[in-house]
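Predict both folds.
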Amino acid sequence: MKNQKLIISWCLFDFANSSYSAVIAAVVFPVYYVSSIVGNEAGRGDLWWGWAISASMAFVAVTSPFLGGIADYSGRRKRLLMFYTLLCVLSVACFSFLKKGMVIESFFLVMAANIGMEGGLVFYNSFLPEISDREYQGRVSAWGYATGYAGSILSLMIALPLVKNSQFDEVWFMVAIFFSIFSLPAFFLLPADRKTDLTLWNSAVKGGIYSLNTLKMIWKHKEVRKFLFAFLIYEDGVNTVIVFSSIFAATTLGFGAKELIGLYMVVQVTALAGAFIMAKPIDYLGPKKVVILSLLLWSSVAVTAFFIYVKIHYWLLASIAGIGLGTVQAASRAFFAQFIPSEHESEYFGVYSLVGKSSAIAGPLVFGKISSSFGSQRPAILAVTAFFVAGLLLIMFVKGGGPNVKQDYTT
């Protein structure tokens, strides 16, 4: 295994950004946004939240493959990661200025924060093949997610007393500080940017052309195409559940803020356990089998949620869902890494991010539209099942994903 300091610093970035994922994207801010800023009469808050998430993901989806190419071509990968991280941190800190009825202002701030968070992951993911040998990439990927769940738990523990006292402005500042501090090791220790004589503009032009060529190259390979299409479908379901699970619990089942934090912490603990348990099986069994098992689990969870009316049942379901949360994400990342030729990591992961972020466009829109149309979130959560089932059927026909296998690009 390569330098352990690089792996630790890489994992700590996941620890840092998980404060955003947990507090802002999943638990506290979504409920605050739909209830205290927009209002959720007849699903209006659901609709605006879905629009904000989908719009930001669409922006990242369009720009990520080009930025990935720019990062590889100009050598500015770490600087771009720092820029996107700063955008997210400053936007979250500005949440403290939001008041009830500031729908448009909050919409653009949420967009900026989410673009900063999700856009940065393009460059974060691209370090994986560089810091870890191929035979260890599955477990290192899982370690990153597992460390992230630990970060989610800690940030929620810090947020809990603030939420209980309705100190929401302090919660947003806490996330900004948490993200900033724990991302520093990555900026100091991860491989430095390469020095080039190209200006940023020339790098952008050449990198953009480079990325278009990468897209054409990837499109020529049948198995890569098939994997990315399957990933597009099932990841849409995963992303939709993440951004709406707390809103569903609060609106449909009547969970309070304290209960939501406790619920999410349970999910993170089980996800942490699941990620560690499945770290080696991803390498030994192969990521494809692990993805299939995870999607079977997710399909069952979405269907079961439709029939739940009692809080304790939702607690149990969330615990089960947590086991498959990090597993499907870590296994998918390791699966795709098998297709990547050396020295093309950033632009390939740019395309991976393009697909992943595109998958976060349709799901939130579908959930928000169905919720507002029916005046109920139950049909909306049931509709998410279709994404998991379709993705499961598609991934079964993808060749590759075996134990420590590199895809043959000649086919």
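Second protein follows, with its predicted structure tokens after the sequence.
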Amino acid sequence: MTVNGLKARMSANIIKRWIIFFILTLGALRSDAQNIDFDLLQGQPSVKIPFELKHNFIVINVRLNGILPLHFIFDTGAQYTLLFKREYADILRIPYVRRIPILGADLSQQLYAWVAQNITVDIPGRLRVRNDILIFEEDYFKLDELTGIFIDGILGGDAFKHYVIQIDYRKQIMTLTRPSAFELPKGNYRSIPLAIKDAKPLLPASVVLENNIRVPVTLLMDTGSGIPLLIYASTHPDLSIPEKTIVGQLGKGLGGYLEGYMGRIKVLELPQELTFNNVVTSFQKLDTIGHAVNLSYNRNGILGNQVLRRFNVIVDYPDSTLYLKPGRNYKQKFKYDRSGLIIFAIGHDLKEFYVNTVIPGSPADEAGFEEGDLIRKIRGLPVSLFDLSSINRMLMKRQGKKIKMVIERDGVRMDKTFRLRDLF
């Protein structure tokens, strides 16, 4: 197998942002099919939608055109519904309206997608969304490999922008309520004003970096992002990248590499005295075109599920208000990989694993791991007994913990041992 695709866990979120930026500039899809006169709830005051929280993504089981069962990520950071795998559209014989070009991440290579109109997506709770969708000519995301779970597309926020959405991460239930039936929540909820732009919720916050300067920022509330926080370092003079980071080409997709950084910020402050310390944070520099697109949204970064899942979340789209209630895990420390291994899942059941990236100077690098190594055993057990999430959790454990693996390289098996430690 050729090792290519995404280069780090944060890559899917960054690459997704690039795709959606250029989709919006093209104006490829129509949003008028889902308007305020269309009653998505079909007379019901509210509907409960079960989901699975996997790899910090909200995954909903849907049916495309009422037939094909698929797995979509619910993504408040995306406006439209996206299908990653064209073969599914071909199975259903979905007609395409037109083929459109999309610029790759290097802003030079042209890639392509197809627009399909009036496609239905059935959601648990007897909900049926009908809208235009974008179908990628190839699966540029490869989220299956990245997450170890089957992901077929994105369910964007445009279909729900006339309703109130409550997300209970602990019970894994999303509740969709019509505004006339919504009652202000009781208990320890904090209200935060939102700006809604293109069905995307933006909220005010502040960050404190290593220079101890408090910087006001605007963040996209992004349930389609599995990371805690992403900061566009070049959007404010005081948003500098910390010295202690993992640096390198952290993403390859859509025709080019994306340079990224991973580190921590001292403090993340949300309104109503909701504060987090030592937050694991991704940093990205934007070039001129990225700046222009990002400035049109007036935002400095992304707030992802690793922060949002610490709350019971209510997004009142019509009233442009976010309600947050701290949960049991509100004060948990933010963890990140301590091995230096970026592992991807492959195979028909995603139960085979290979090393996609080895971070230079990390414990895995010092132990002699190389890109493309196949993992055969972990702690003496066959890898078939694990999934990608359990492997990643193991690599986040305490400093000093010994990890033993058996890998295969060019048909030769080798024993590898290293101890976990902080990388930043």
